[in-house]
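user: Kindly work through both lines:
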Amino acid sequence: MTAPARSFARDLAFGESVAAAPFWQAVYREAIPGFDQVRANGDDCRSQRLGIDDLVLRTDGSVVRVQKKARRSGDGSDIALEVVHEYVDGRKKPGWIEEREPKEDFFAYGFPHLELAYVFPRLSLAQAWRENEREWRAIARESRRLGLDGNPNAVSGPMLELVGWIRSWNVPNGGLPYWTHSIVIGAGRLIAAVADTMTIRLRRGAQ
């Protein structure tokens, strides 16, 4: 079974439409202490090209850098991690989850239609991916082999909260079209993996 395809153009248009809406301001106000205002970066902004979508200004003058993704549908139970971009000329480029030295402070994944968002410390999210990448890729491959991609009701055991691959078609202005391949993971599983990176054991048996 082929992984479900999504239109990047429609997702991007949706993301841009909610970027100026009160949704993200409300999310940042709840997630970031001392929230003052948010400034969205444009498509031609260097920060945006580095993955920084919004700059959140705090009342003490400091700035918090946020990368955000918005979903148009879904029940809020899973999150798509972009693994690789595959261009029509055969070139490949790592997705945002593969960024080894992310420049953002937080990653926000929102479902505006549900008034729901997940906000992760970006470095902890990167560490969680490094620690679990091999296992998650293996489970996703098995999910694809069994034809379970995108069908959370058909999985069990280790696949319960990792339902395989999804792909989206990208047509950038003035650039080559490409496919984005993402691993879809249950929100609860991802939250647990990120939380685990925040517990540091310096020696065996440390509490």
In short: The chain has one domain: 5-196. Residues 5-196 form one domain.
